[in-house]
């Protein structure tokens, strides 16, 4: 094993799993290398510091999540609010899958790191801010589409989207604390309330079940 | 300096400040003792472990916050929703004061520790669950009073209260991430939306300003 791209991938993967399970501060470079099965020299060949690894883990996680959010929220046949609902359903399903694979609800990596690190390293704070701004933009585009259809009542589309994302973070915090992904079942009804919306009707004309 | 109650207080106080600034994992007992100005032997005389100190810090912080919440939310001359609004105003004022004294918005200690530690130590998880249950109970009592007056529209008082608390945690996360307590200005309008409420009228009959 050595300075191969394979080693970088192993370090990234170990860093991602360990940060998800135990946060950033609790980890040392030695433990990350041990989990990755690479010598410590490899670590510093690929990453300047533990913080540089954290930034790479954040970027990789967001690249994946951004693809997921784009797929779920993209304009298509479905009504805007139905797309938002799908986002919540997928969020709950993902937390549930994580719990089944590692025993506990891991929560949102970006929320976890915001509370653990944002007041300690400016580079991480800036990166996390960019990610949440991007999330708010994506939700705002859907809220805006719903507003054009007269399905929501919001004074400021972007602020409303921010409140929806904040509500998700707050409920994911509870899901992690109670180790219970079902906590996220309330996201849909709360999102409708925050947006001053009614549940959208299904194509059959029946109200989509809450 | 030695095994006096004064030393215990100093350790607790150092632990509280350091946990608030940097979280739990980033701290070592040696650093806590150095900040407190007590020898390491004193630490283990009063606390079995760093986790035991964290639990004591959590308990002390909650004792103080519970008194504050009780004062703000207690039944009195003011309408239920006005009391809830006061809770948000005080939350914002406290985050702002913390920012002025230490340079950054520290967020909610219970939220911070929920995301950092709840999936790693069961004792901390259980204690934090109890605290959030108590918070939800206190908010639920106010929501219930508002429901009796026909001022809110909620199907489940306790679930609605939980959503209000989750929204606070989500917005406090953003306040910490953006180092901006003004983020919390939206709590009141969002709370009204989550509770299906109108802004209560002031004694003069004018709508309380959002």
From TrEMBL, chains A, B:
- Look up the domain of life of the source: Bacteria
Which UniProt keyword terms apply here?
A: DNA-binding, Transcription, Transcription regulation
Record-annotated membrane-spanning stretches: none
* Domain called HTH tetR-type: residue spans: 5-65
Q: Does the keyword Transcription apply?
A: yes
Instruction: List, alphabetically, the Pfam families matched.
Output: TetR_C_13, TetR_N
Q: Name the Gene3D superfamilies on file.
A: Tetracycline Repressor, domain 2
Summarize which parts of the chain are annotated to bind DNA, as ranges: 28-47
Q: Does the keyword Transcription apply?
A: yes
The record, for PROSITE patterns, names:
HTH_TETR_2
PANTHER family with a match to the protein in the record: HTH-TYPE TRANSCRIPTIONAL REPRESSOR NEMR (PTHR47506:SF6), TRANSCRIPTIONAL REGULATORY PROTEIN (PTHR47506)
Q: What is this protein called?
A: TetR/AcrR family transcriptional regulator
Organism field: Actinacidiphila polyblastidii
